[in-house]
Amino acid sequence: MINERAPRRPLHVRHVNLARGFRGGERQTLLLIEALAALEGDAVRQSLVCRRDSPMRARLAAGNITFIDADHALAGHVGTPRADIVHAHEAKAVHWAWLEQRLRGTPYLLTRRVPQPVKDKPFNRLTYRGAACAVAISSVIERHLRERDWCPVVRIPSVLSGQPADPARIAGLRERFAGRRVIGHIGALVDRHKGQRVLLEAARQLGPRYPDAVFLLLGEGEDAEMLKAESADLDNVIWEGFQSHVGDYLEIMTLFAFPSRNEGLGSTLLDAMDHGVPIVASDVDGIPDLIEHDISGLLVPPGDATALARELAALLDDPDCAARLAAGARQRLADFTPAAMATAYRARYRDILGSRETPGDR
After folding, report:
1. Which residues pair with 214 in a beta bridge?
2. Which letter does DSSP use for residue 293 in this model?
3. Could you state, in order of their start, the residue ranges of all structural domains in the chain?
4. Computed over its alpha carbons, how large is the radius of gyration of the chain?
5. From CA 258, how far away is CA 211, in angstroms rounded?
6. pLDDT band at 63 (very low <50, low <70, confident <90, very high)
7. CATH fold of the domain at 167-333
8. Are strands 237-241 and 213-218 parallel, antiparallel or unpaired?
9. How far, in Å, CA of 203 to CA of 143, rounded?
């Protein structure tokens, strides 16, 4: 049962994210840290184990959080106060949390964000069985974890990031794209994951019929140069690179295309929904948790450029349908806020610690 009594000291949660870069999982880690700090009621003290070169440090520099240096899973275990619970946010972090439990007895939970089943290897079995709980961000991940049956499983979805928008920048973008209908895409330029080649083929098919439509792709990644070379003959494709103010771009998008080949959930879709952009996305993995076909967006088979082009064309031809889908999507957002995620995780932390009062640092 969840302990309803207020702890004598703030609950100390130690987050662990050892990723080198900054992608969706790191954004969700930051959103949780910020939302836990903002929750009313029982206070939560937080620390973050991360690489010394982690981009998360700069983004949290103004927050009330302690950083612990760890460039690998063996570092950061000595010379720091013991936390009450450890939260592992990615694969290497799970190894760190398991070792911390072995060294200091700290219980841990993990969040699984990728849709592929966990490989059935001895060390994976060991680290997952050591976890007090595994959190799945989507139904497909939850199903895979329950099939493994290595530890208790719950589902807490990723959330929208509340991308801000600046009126001056929006005005500049509207002027730049005046007379154009913008089909947007935001994601790491990694085709095996995000499926940008599918989007390029859809752009090729739609170009002659919709000369006013332009495909605007935001992001960077290992396939950037290859994808740009393959689209060099397309005058309706613009590569915008990484942009820190994606909310400004979402405000000027007519449609949002998300042809992922695999996707844990697709939290970027939540930001598109929040900005009222109608969505056409792949019917794969966790995406249907967010997009109900013809209710909150349109779904197409993954890898099918013709189907993607057909549904994009349908919405370009029918603005009323596009507006209906955008309205349907907005109605779903209440379940995907940072506050809802933080409340769910705080309850999970309490549940794991059981009826014990928070012991504080040791």
Report:
1. 182
2. B
3. 11-159+337-353, 167-333
4. 22
5. 21
6. confident
7. Rossmann fold (3.40.50)
8. parallel
9. 35
Note whether 11-159+337-353 and 167-333 share their fold.
Answer: yes
What single letter denotes the amino acid at residue 144? H
Six-digit token pair at 240? Answer: 């915008």
**Alpha helix ranges (H) inside the chain:** 24-38, 56-59, 91-104, 122-129, 139-148, 167-176, 191-194, 196-206, 224-230, 246-251, 267-274, 305-317, 319-330, 338-353
Both structure tokens of 348: 């999970």
DSSP state letter for 249 = H
118-139 burial code (b ≥16 CB/10 A, e <16) = beeeeebeebbebbbbbbbbbe
Looking up tokens 């209908």 gives 181
CA–CA distances in Å: residue 294 to residues 16, 40, 281, 289: 39, 37, 11, 14
CA 46 – CA 184 distance, rounded (Å): 36
SS3 label, residue 86 = strand
pLDDT for the residue numbered 244: 86
Which tokens in the block code for residue 67?
């950083």
User: Count of residues for the chain?
Assistant: 362
Q: How many CB atoms lie within 10 A of CB 2?
A: 13
CATH code for residues 11-159+337-353: 3.40.50.2000
- Pairwise CA distance, residues 76 & 97, whole Å: 11
Tokens of 104: 């200091």
Summarize pLDDT for 310-335 with one digit per residue, the tens. Answer: 999 999 999 999 999 999 999 989 88
Whole-angstrom distance, CA of residue 38 vs CA of residue 341: 12
